[in-house]
Design brief:
The chain is of the alpha+beta class and about 160 residues long. It has a single domain (about 10-155), classed as Alpha-D-Glucose-1,6-Bisphosphate, Chain A, domain 4, CATH 3.30.530.20. The protein has helices at about 30-35, 40, 130-155, and strands at about 10, 15-25, 45-50, 60, 70-75, 80-85, 100-110, 115-125. It has an eight-stranded antiparallel β-sheet with strand order 1-2-8-7-6-5-4-3. Strand 7 (about 100-110) and strand 8 (about 115-125) form a beta hairpin.
Length: about 160
Amino acid sequence: MEHTRNPRAMIDADAFSVRRTIHINAPVEKVWRTVTEPELVSQWFGSITLSGTGAGALGTIGWPGERRVPIRVETYNPPSEVSYRWCNEEDPLPETADEERSTVFAFTLEATSGGTQLTVVETGFERTGDPTQFMIDHRGGWDEELDKLVALLENSA
């Protein structure tokens, strides 16, 4: 997939985090729904199922040809911030997203003239078996997945 006009994700090795900020030509409310409602998240990110809504909702997320991993909504502050905890480690995969072997990715949304600024920050890579490789992999993932989000929202505007 081609990269949009938005800058690519950056790794902060000292903080064990990956960050990307993008601009989307769509209103905050539309972007919010697309990063929080499972049927919309599944159109640009992994296929996600959640039991319930808001903080504490549990579920799984997965991509075609890959196993599903546990995910939990950590924070839910409409329409400006939502965060998810998910497991990234190899076997054995826990049944729920636990603090010992998971990372947290947070979306922050801010209205701008002409659309929305979305920032994703994923933290907790120091808890993974290979922090450097996981950060590299997730940096590439956020570039690809958020480009899909921009294309979905801007092409449906």
